Amino acid sequence: MPDEAALRTAGLGWRWRALVAGRVALAAFGGYGVAALATAFLSLALPMARSEAVATATLLSFAIMVGAVIWVFSAHTLSRAALGLAVPSTLLAAGLWLALALVDTAPPA
Amino acid sequence: MTPSSVLLNLALSFAGLSALCLAMDRHHRAIFRVAPSRRQARALRGAGWCGIAASFAAAVILADWNFGPVQWLGSLTGAALLVVGLVSYRPRWIRPAALAALPLAAAAAFLA
Amino acid sequence: MKPGFRQSMAWLHTWAGLVTGWVMFCVFVTGTATYYRADISHWMRPELQAAAVEPGVAVERGAAYLKVHAPKAVAWFVSVPQAERPLLDVYWFDSFETPIRQATLDAGTGAPTTVRATQGGDFLYRFHYELQMMPGLGRWIVGASALVLLVALVSGIVTHRRIFSDFFTFRRDRSAQRGWLDAHNVTGVLALPFHLMITYTGIVTLAFTLMPWGITSAYRGDELRFFVEAGQSPAWRAAAGRPADALPLAPLMARAQAEVSEPLEMAIINNPGDAASTVVAVFEEPKGLAHRHPQVVFEATSGAVIARLGTLKPAAHVFTSFLGLHEAHFAGPALRGLFFLCGLLGSATIATGLVLWAVARAPKAGAVPGFALSLVRGLNLGTILGLPIGIAAFFLANRLLPVAMNERATWEGAVFFAAWGLAAMVGLARPYARTWREMGAAAALLFLSVPLVSDLTTDRGLDFAGFDAAMIAIGLTLAWGARKVSHYRGPARLRAATAPEALARA
User: Fold this and answer.
1) What is the mean pLDDT of residues C138-152?
2) Chain C interface, best mutation among A74, A80, A102, by max C CB count within 10 A
């Protein structure tokens, strides 16, 4: 992120702070969002018993979130970081929508 | 998971980690004033990894695959803390302590 | 945030570690103490002598109390007295909307206990995972802080480039900052498997609070149904709405015990007095990592077995093994000691990291520290020494508050928070280096006085020698640590010396 580093050294403190705040917000909400979507999607899509899929997806979700946060803070620019979360989120949301339509989650009568 | 099996793990891990520590230039120099020769370092490293492997084997045999790895990691942490304490405060004690750990391990193995 | 992956991670490690450090230090310290929860509870009820009671008889006694005091409850729970907790605890729900209620009975008579009212080790345990706040809020704060800690751990591993060559290195003779950095690295690296395990499994214990979306999507939010399908909870049988006589409990418990080799832990009576009532015998965890309890479910009126719970599918087994690893109920005394040591190392890693943040930013000699630095220094003091002061005061309150006092258990907690709050305010108000020494000495004296006060106010002889030895060891460690910290001098010179390798100041 050379441009942001330059901002910092150039004394543009407020812009630097805004970018940091943006990353923190993106990591917290975006990271949680990706993890939540992945959990909801995998709970329906994993090819195993329903309770097993939920357990597996929930166990994995926290690793997914940590990976997303690491990505947000290591990406070169804020917009790249956001794009890196937006693409998987969109795919997961589409998959979840499809799975909710296809998988029967109703309790047995 | 008896106390004597944990003691065996601790003794083997301690001996192994001490050898690994002595194989490193910085610590060998602090204790013996000279760096270890390449052959000495290699021998110490080999002995060290053997000790750690023996500790793992003992843990798995005595505490089975369920708890063995947990006990092994725990004992490695405890033993490493001891090595760091000795190397920082009483570096000269490391070698006698590591050698003393071996009969201790044998005694613990007999009890376990 | 800076060019280069490692620099970004160093930045992330520094700031994630700082913001989560204070909460996580408290969680680690109280969690480490919780490895000895039963021993602490035991010590805090000195009047109590172990009395062997037949489990079936104990269950009957608990149910007899509940029949009088909670006849309309939807569920009763009777917890069988254990060697480390020789009391009969009963719990009940008046309805599904009301919070759980509890009474502690004498195991021998079934009447409310006359032992001093205290939360015992459960106080620190509850603080560990919900900070003694409203459960929802407290668990979210702990869970979110633990997630940040996990990020700090991963980024810390990336940042620390010489994990293996510095494995045994603690250079206490170079400079203050180098010493703190080495202490942070050594305590962090030596117990790294534990730190990763305990943080991840700790998050998993709060999994369905933090990440309920799998149950939302696959079960439409019906959490009970998930636990039933996962084989961890028996299905709920709705009340029939008409009364019926239930069979005596002791024979049912004996029949269940004949099928299971572990000792009985609890009896649950659902819809007591109803024609559709069920009785669940819950047993202790079998030897193994997984935290799961065998259960046998009976129909209360006929005594027919409705369900048996025991084996789990693979993912559920892994899930419960995570919980089991976190709680370490399986550990014998030696392994428990190692877990305790690892917990102390974790607390030390966090504490040294917090101090390192402040040491690396110390102003040059004579300069006035800025607001942020003063705040961090104050919070460091108030947390790292304030919490131990609170815990020692809590133990002293257990011995010094009148036994017959009203709301006694609540007052013990109030003393804990009052002492801690006072210490935290002193930390924020007073200058830095000297206060470490003074507060460290105060904390050491408080811990050292615990065995003395206990001996003067109780007559249990050497029954609590282990607890007393632990208090003395903690007191001496605090005294030694306070002395070490107060010897730290001359930040400006030292900072200049280590500037090129100021890893922690990324």
Assistant:
1) 95
2) A74
Task: Name the one residue in this structure whose structure tokens are 């006698």.
Answer: B96
Mutation target to probe the C interface, by most C beta carbons within 10 A, among A3, A58, A92 is: A58
| C274 and C187 inside one domain | no
C496 occurs within a structural domain: no
Give C417-453 pLDDT, tens digit per residue: 999 999 999 988 876 678 888 899 999 999 999 999 9
Domain ranges for chain A, please list them.
2-100
Beta-sheet pairing, C101-106 with C87-93: antiparallel
Q: How far is C496 from chain A (nearest CA, A)?
A: 20
Residues 6+ apart with CB under 8 A from C31: C128, C129, C198, C202, C343
Look up the pTM and report it: 0.90
pLDDT tens readout for residues A47-99: 999 999 999 999 999 999 999 999 999 988 899 999 999 999 999 999 999 99
Within a domain: residue C340? no
Tokens, residue B48: 């060290």
Of A49, A54, A100, Cβ closest to residue C214: A54
Dihedral sign computed on CA atoms, order C325, C327, C329, C334: positive
Which of C163, C201, C317, C338 best probes binding to B when mutated, by most B CB atoms within 10 angstroms?
C338
Q: Which two tokens stand for residue C401?
A: 């508050």
C-alpha to C-alpha distance for C380 and C226, rounded to whole angstroms: 42
Q: Which of A40, A56, A63 is closest, CB to CB, to C213? A: A40
The per-residue pLDDT for C499 is: 38
In this predicted structure, what is the pLDDT of residue C485?
A: 67
Distance, CA of C167 to CA of B47 (rounded, Å): 17
Confidence of residue C501 (pLDDT cuts 50, 70, 90): very low
Gap between the Cα atoms of C391 and B39, Å rounded = 53
Domain count, chain C: 3
- Closest partner residue to A62 (CB to CB) among C150, C213, C222 is C150
User: C–A contact (≥3 CB pairs within 8 Å)?
Assistant: yes
The percentage of residues in chain C with a pLDDT greater than 90, rounded to a whole number, is 49
C335 interaction partners in chain B (CB closer than 8 Å): 1, 6, 67, 70-71, 74
Out of A60-74, B58-72, C103-117, C232-246, give the one with best mean pLDDT: A60-74
Collapsing DSSP states into helix, strand and coil, what is residue C386? helix
pLDDT at position C431: 62
* Beta-carbon separation of A40 and C322 below 8 A: no
Instruction: Residue C456: give the domain boundaries.
Output: 366-489
pLDDT attached to residue C85: 77
C3/A106 touch (CB, cutoff 8 Å), yes or no: no
Can you tell me the distance from the alpha carbon of B90 to that of C181, in angstroms, rounded to the nearest whole number? 21
Percent share of chain A, pLDDT over 90: 65
* Contact flag C338-B66 (C-beta cutoff 8 Å): no
Is residue C316 domain-resident?
A: no
Same domain, C282 and C149: no
Residue C212 covered by a domain:
yes
pLDDT at B108 (0 to 100): 85
Q: Chain B residue closest to C187 (CA)?
A: B81
Chain A residue at shortest CA distance from C155: A70
Q: Which residues of chain A make contact with C218, given a CB cutoff of 8 A?
A: 43-44, 50, 53-54, 103, 105
**Which positions in chain C touch B78 (Cβ < 8 Å)?**
338, 341
**Two tokens, residue C325:** 């690893």
C23 close to C145: Cβ distance less than 8 angstroms: yes
